[in-house]
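Subject: for your reference before the review

Hello V.,

The reviewers asked for a structural picture of the protein, and I figured it would be easier to keep everything in one thread rather than splitting it across files. Below is the amino acid sequence we used in the manuscript, unchanged from the supplementary table.
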Amino acid sequence: MAIPLESLDYDTFAALAGEVFTTTVGEVFIGLRLDEVRKLGHRRAEAMRDPFSISFLGPQGLRLPQGIYRFSNEALGGIELFIAQVADGARGSEFEAVFT
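And here is what came back from the structure prediction:
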């Protein structure tokens, strides 16, 4: 069972920066390192948390279509995230998930 997204916040992911999250595409396991956790401003009155984004780095040349992926992390467990690829450069392939 995946962790409910509403229970996650900036501090949850900031504590995991640098750790590897794994997902699968077909039968291939892919490891992405949590590279950055960034605050995006202040919460709206009706929001349950301050908005933030997380960025993952994978191998250079890795292509994943944007969509929902089930990730696993030893400390956090299972989580489903909508990710979009935002770059592929010298540092590797970068993917982002935004929480509002």
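For the response letter, the relevant points are probably these. Residues 29 and 60 are 16 Å apart (CA to CA). The chain has a mean pLDDT of 92.

Happy to draft the paragraph if you're swamped.

O.
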